[in-house]
Amino acid sequence: MNMKRITILFVCLFGVLGSGYCQEKRLYNHYYLTMKAIKEGNLSDFENNVKHIKNIDSLCHTDTDHSYTLLGYACLYQNKRLIQRLIGMKANTECVYSDDMYCYDALYIAVDKGNCELVKLFLSLGANPNEAYNEDGLCPLAMSCNTNNFPVACLLLQYGAKANGLGNLGGDYITYPLIIAVDKNNINMVKVLLKYGARTKVRDKSGISPLFIARRHKNVEMIKLLERSR
């Protein structure tokens, strides 16, 4: 009799475990199919699968080092239609991507992709143009300077990005948008940063100034511009 009860107990236990595994597998499949639909821009498949996902803000690994929420994945593939759909579903825009060290907002991906339309969308929704992405002061404006994306930089400045960057945040390095722009020989970027109040007398932790970099590059126009703005 006892053996019979034990057998029934094991059957029930394995049934419950098996049921849980199947549910987890189905949920994984819905995540996979939803992300596949985002990548392919398939709205119908997206709608058919996303309705089964309880937490659309879960971070899902795409490889060993990178994780995205559904919104982050839509930003990665710059699918504005599905981005707006997910925003309508109240998706969190503040943590959409992780590299296992930091968590990044939707604006980060939009700036990284150089997509002005998405940058403007997230700024209009309240994204912080002065978000610090690491302890060295990496911020949206510094990213746009680093990629020479003048239109994105202008948008960020219009929405209140600090032309001087975020200052010393305690890291090993201080990120100055002006130093980046000068080093990139981007005269138009330098001009707009100066227009919004960037200081020419800043120095990084190595003591390097924008004027020093301009002279090293032998960029006469840049040297004159910086000297006039001192």
UniProtKB/TrEMBL annotation:
Pfam families: Ank_2
Taxonomic superkingdom: Bacteria
InterPro entries, per the entry: Ankyrin_rpt, Ankyrin_rpt-contain_sf
Protein keywords: ANK repeat, Repeat
The keyword Repeat is assigned to this record: yes
Source organism (scientific name): Prevotella histicola
Designated name of the protein: Ankyrin repeat domain-containing protein
Start-end of each ANK repeat: 177-205
Tagged with keyword Repeat: yes
Gene3D superfamilies (alphabetical): Ankyrin repeat-containing domain
PANTHER family: ANKYRIN REPEAT AND PROTEIN KINASE DOMAIN-CONTAINING PROTEIN, ANKYRIN REPEAT-CONTAINING PROTEIN-RELATED
Transmembrane regions: none
Organism classification: Bacteria, Pseudomonadati, Bacteroidota, Bacteroidia, Bacteroidales
